[in-house]
Amino acid sequence: MPARQPQFNPGPAAPAAAVSRRGFLRTSAVVTAGLAALAASLKPLLEMNDFPTLERFMQKYYKELTPEEMERVLKRIETEVERQYGIRPHVRDLKPRDGVEFVYCLNLTRCIGCRKCVHACVAENNQSRNPEIQYIRVLRLPHGSLDIEKAEHNYAPDLVPEKGYFYMPVQCQQCKNPPCVKVCPVHATWQEADGITVIDYDWCIGCRYCEAACPYWARRFNFTKPSIPRERLNPDMAYLGNRPRRQGVMEKCHFCIQRTRAGRYPACLEVCPTGARKFGNILDPNSEVSYILKNKRVFIQLKEELGTSPRFFYYFDV
Amino acid sequence: MHAQTKTSTALGAVAVALAALAVVFFFNFGARPVHLHPIALVDTNFLDTATVRRSYADLARAGEDLSDFDCYACHEKGKPPPLRFDTSQNLIIPKEHADIVMGHGSHGRNNNCFNCHNETNLELLQTRDGHEIKFSDSPALCGSCHGPTYRDWEAGAHGRTSGYWDRSVGAAQRKACVNCHNPHSPKFPGRQPAPGPHPLHALAMASAGTGSNSATVSTGWGETPGEPGYRGNLRPWLAGTLAPPTP
Fold first, then answer.
1. Residue A3: its chain B contacts at CB < 8 A?
2. What's the first-to-final CA gap in chain A, in angstroms?
3. Phi-psi bin for B80: left (phi > 0), alpha (psi -120 to 50), beta?
4. Which of A138, A147, A145 lies closest to A167 in space, CA to CA?
5. Does the beta-carbon distance from A288 to B157 stay under 8 Å?
6. Containing H/E element for A290?
7. Which residues of A are less than 8 Å from B158 in CB distance?
8. Higher pLDDT, A23 or B211
9. Beta partners for B94?
10. Looking at residue A152, what DSSP letter applies?
């Protein structure tokens, strides 16, 4: 029986003669076809127009940025937004203030389910219009029950409120014990001193663990590049707030950080026609929210049995 | 078969397969096109932060037409206008005031103009215990009956507020009772809801597009009666109280 000549591993005995012309051609055909297939499968990268600049790629973690570096980052964001939308925004990095802890109170007796808050929020916070991203979901519940299983959010009557129903808007509850923060593998989301849980959109890797962890369905993911019409862009922006997001990052309600840290009320409160929404500093004993929590019938923190301890309270008149 | 032939056949097959894959990848064969449903931008009326009504104080501040409050253009000074009631004690609204709908209080008991208006000076309001109040200070009049609500309003827990929560940075604007409530029929009127979340499904869009009066829009997941795939309410079945529905 003749000894077989190994094709590719000739061994030390025959170093030079092992690569035959035929063997070389065969191997190169396979390698070329393989590389072509790999290159073709990477073709979608060519269509990626939002390729990160080196500057953004090398950017440090939010909490490690020095004020000068932050200044440069804000300038970069302004330039990027201007290039994309043709509008030069004003991007700020507002810090939490001492002695301020935000709390939201929502009067279930007054809410009529008109969804104006949903759309004011979209306009204020530069959310994607298509695909649609909304931070607030208004649930319609039958009277006499607080069973979220019976809730309906696709209601579309001619007039609200409807007889026999009440409405419960749900958005990020800004928990004191937030499950979403615990699961983030890269610390891209954290709770600030004033109680707002924020996301660094430049640090988020888009794993969506936080979305899975949130019991309130409050987090939204940018599956595609967000689309915002130029004329509806809100140029008053904050780094941790409403600056335009990229594809592949999470976002959620941040109590309108660009407004509330500048002392203003959030957009959903301003637009509410019935005054069902109340917002303020719980550490100030004279604030509206302090009065409500002290004097009104505050019924829930939603799903309080989970121990998330929301900073969002639902209350009733009477 | 010789080992060499075997190897070359295998390598040839791999090369052909990879080349075929390259073609498939490059021309994106068999991929479902990414299709975004067109979603109309929301009507900017839904973004309006204005109150439902404008108070006397608002009109006066904006220097607008106050002729509606100029009572003595028609009425005679010092002569209280007479009130007429029908047989069931409902106030008969004179045609000059046809825009007023009396709906304050249940059972039509609050049916006397002078429960709130001052009989002797129509350009003033008055509480039941006789305090005269200007139109621009009307919340005090409302508060003379609606005490707990007035207390909440004063604390900022009832009614609309806008501007700055931090009063050291800027002022907050409090809205008066009449910015939201029509004093003659104070129940907050129903309004058209803004569009709900887009259902992203052809069937659901069809039923939403027809502007049906149904209370819910079909989600297209077979949850709504009449939809293809509807298998009845599954909840009792899941709860074990019913036999599973037969399709």
1. none
2. 101
3. beta
4. A138
5. yes
6. helix A288-295
7. 275, 317
8. A23
9. none
10. B
Task: Supply the DSSP symbol for A305.
Answer: G
Give the structural domain span for A225: 102-316
CATH number of the domain where residue A195 is located: 3.30.70.20
d(CA A53, CA A139): 41
State the total domains in chain A: 1
Does the residue A5 lie in any domain?
no
- Inside any domain, residue A53: no
Distance from CA of A68 to the nearest CA of B (A): 26
Entry pTM: 0.80
Task: Give the single-character DSSP code of A165.
Answer: E
How much is the pLDDT for B67? 85
Please report whether residue A236 resides in a domain: yes
A133: tokens are 């991203």
Cβ–Cβ contact B162 with A under 8 A: yes
Enumerate residues 6+ apart whose C-beta is below 8 A from A254.
A125, A172, A196, A197, A198, A199, A240, A241
Tell me the pLDDT tens digit for each residue of A221-268. 999 889 999 999 999 999 999 999 999 999 999 999 999 999 999 999
Beta strands in chain A (DSSP E): 90-92, 102-107, 137-142, 165-170, 189-191, 197-199, 220-221, 236-238, 250-251, 277-281, 297-300, 312-316
Domain membership flag for residue A87: no
